[in-house]
Amino acid sequence: MVTNERFAQGMTLQQYLDQMGTNKEKFVQFLNEIKVKPEDRAALDRLGTKLKVLVITEDWCGDALYNVPVLAGMVEGNPNIEMRIFLRDKNPDLMDQYLNQGLFRSIPVFVFFDERMNEVARFIERPPAQTEEMEKKMLETRRALRAERYLDWREGVVKEIRSLLRV
Questions:
Q1: Model's pTM, two decimal places?
Q2: Which fold has domain 4-126?
């Protein structure tokens, strides 16, 4: 369970940016490119409550690079939303509360809380439709590679077996 005290220990967006080492330039570029539609901002306002958004991320993560700037753009300037960012690898206590499918430390994680720190919603990694699209494309690529390179791959299997058996 996330408390107000634990939430307050997170970084602001600026603090996160200040400590970034990987992908900072691209992240800032994406932040500057994000154009949030007025109706999307208004949708958050219609909730009629103050929200706290806990973000778990790492600067090396591709999904985080693309998704965190979108969230930041949506909540920027909204006095009813406070966002705090935690690094996944330095906060296993938080990460383990929001495992993808109960198993994976997938990031980014966005957890929305009401004023009493009751969880309202959560987002993990990427939208399901995007995951489905990526998996379909990866399957197509694997099938194509197998079909194109099957002779080389067979040879590779023989080499690996011989290496393992030292023969």
A1: 0.82
A2: Glutaredoxin (3.40.30)
